[in-house]
Amino acid sequence: MRRYGMPLRRTAAVTAGLVLLLSAAACGGDEENPGTGGGTEAARDSTFIFASSADPAILDPAFHSDGESSRVTNQIFETLVATEEGGTGVAPGLAESWEVSEDAKTYTFKLRRGVRFHDGEPFNAAAVCANFERWYNFTGLAQADSVSYYWVTVFRGFAKNEADTLGESLYGGCTAKDDSTVELKLTDSSAVVLSALTLSSFSIASPKALKDYKADEVSGTAESPQFTGTFGTEHPIGTGPFKFGSWTRGDKLELVRNDDYWGEKAKLSKIIFRPIEKAADRAQALRAGTVHAFDYADPADLEPLRSAGVQILERAPFNMGYLGFSQRTEIMKNQKIRQAIAHAINRENVVKTKYATGAKVANAFMPDSLWSYSEDFAKYDYNVEKAKQLIAESGVSNPTLEFCYPSGVSRAYMVDPAGNFQLMKADLEAAGFKVTPKTSPWSPDYLNTAQAGDCPLFLLGWNGDFGDPDNFLGTFFQSFSNQWSFRNEEIFKTLSDAEKEPDQAKREALYKQANALIADFVPGVPYAQSPSFSAAAKNVQGWVPSPVLNDKFASISLN
Questions:
Q1: Which of 326, 324, 339 is nearest to 521 (CA)?
Q2: Cβ pair 12, 149 in contact under 8 A
Q3: pLDDT of residue 464
Q4: Which terminus of the chain is less hemmed in, N or C, by CB atoms within 10 Å?
Q5: How far is 18 from 294, CA to CA, in rounded Å?
């Protein structure tokens, strides 16, 4: 999957993930004050209050790439295909079944019958095609990948591209063969599109609501878009088990149960999202009984939370943290230097010191649970003497590295960026490098700098969007990107061939080949993959966390 422009995936505050659903009775309280005691009335209301890290950016799925937005829109909207519960495979969604042509250019979906949008409009093939045509025909600011990021990432371009960073669109047209049959055509083969369509950004919205509430009105700048229509702020209308209730920014966002839902009805009558910026404050709110759950608990807080009677839930790792190299700088063009850095870092010590139980050293730019993973490639074990030898062979005297790391952020793959930096800095200096630190706030300063290729050495990571190696290897290395600033046509071609190859066994072989090529080239050093942890009261039942952060709330039962 080629990435055009500057990637911004999930850059809002803290990436969303697990949502745990509890009745107000779980904490013995009413809707607005869970800690006050409630009884049967509170239980009947079944209102859950979740402490999010920030408000959503927008509730129009086509225009968001942050987790706090997708956490909410995953409940309001649905996609043609879904992620299997607790895993990364593809499962039926609004489409009951599908067929893919031998050349992977035509995808045919059989849709569920009897489904309606929240505004009463019928869901059918025409509605599906209206959504695809909307995305394909975005113009102006809506084409910026900071606005329609996932369309740009997956489908590459638009009907009329307005920037030279955009590619020829992969979208070749959508046809409603009948009310319940959709034929999606591609301009080139792609075995990745089916998995990519599980992304919330490809949710199907009511075409009438999109028009009535001016969904496509976007002003401002690419760095600070303003959504002047009201679809994404007051009238987000999908087919999901919850409907939009109200939203007061900075205070709360309410969803209510969709009693006309086509499938099994949600157990909760209402969900309230309350933004609380700091993780420590979210933990305190949970202990005080004013919220029911929060995501991404600090590993250092896990035992104190358990001691306070809080339930700790673990999400399986589907991520990896890496030390990246930008080859815009002369020193990073030297392969011996890159190899020396790889040998100098004591990755096992970083993981053991800075990560929670369940974390492990990452040896590849993809998680070890993903199909096609192998370690049949060059390894860079911790070896200070080997690092010193490679520096001597590099021809670089007194090598100096500018090392960038972010502040104001915590991720499962990078819980303590400053702590990781300090450990790696000591390792590099022990091998003979001089390290110059450079830190800046995560968003937008750090991300903009790193993704523009202006950091010779930088800390970043990735949580998978969907269960395909392309979402890791292809996202990073299928084509030139400023972040890495290298051109290696053999790597590019291998990953492009893998995306297009419809035969699963051949795809697997190509990704294994790509992993070997990447390891030999050393564009960076993967060093950690880690589970994440969430906290809630103990009476949650039936919740299954999604490795790709695509949790659905409707199946949760309340004790």
A1: 339
A2: no
A3: 92
A4: C
A5: 8
**Residue 360 and residue 529 in contact, taking contact as beta carbons nearer than 8 Å:** yes
Determine the 3-state secondary structure of 126 from DSSP.
helix
Question: What single DSSP character describes residue 314?
Answer: E
pLDDT band at 1 (very low <50, low <70, confident <90, very high): low
Q: Quick check: helix, strand or coil at residue 85?
A: coil
Spatial distance between the Cα atoms of 11 and 442, rounded to a whole number of angstroms: 8
What is the C-alpha to C-alpha distance for residues 101 and 455, in angstroms, rounded to an integer? 43
Before 547, cis peptide (omega within 30)?
no
Cα–Cα distance, 446 to 444 (Å, whole number): 6
Per-residue H/E/C for 399-419: CEEEEEEEECCCECCECCHHH
Q: Between the CA of residue 531 and those of 194, 367, 503, what are the distances in Å?
A: 26, 11, 31
Query: Collapsing DSSP states into helix, strand and coil, what is residue 323?
Result: strand
pLDDT of residue 249: 94
Report pTM: 0.86
Task: Quickly list H helices, 51-192.
Answer: 67-76, 125-136, 149-155
- In this predicted model, which residue has the larger pLDDT, 507 or 408? 507
Pairing of strands 524-528, 106-111: unpaired
Cβ–Cβ under 8 Å, residues 102 and 502? yes
**Residue 255, φ and ψ in degrees, nearest 5:** -120, 145
CA distances to 61, 64, 127, 130, 158 from 137, rounded to whole Å, are 16, 17, 15, 10, 6
Which residue blocks in 257-345 are alpha helix, DSSP H?
A: 279-288, 302-307, 335-344
Dihedral sign for Cα 33, 36, 42, 43, please.
Answer: positive
Classify 49 in phi/psi space as left (phi over 0), alpha (psi -120 to 50) or beta: beta
Q: Report residue 250 CA to chain centroid gap.
A: 23
State residue 420's pLDDT score. 97
Chain position carrying tokens 């199946």: 555
| Contact of 397 with 432, CB cutoff 8 Å | no
Tokens of 306: 């358990």
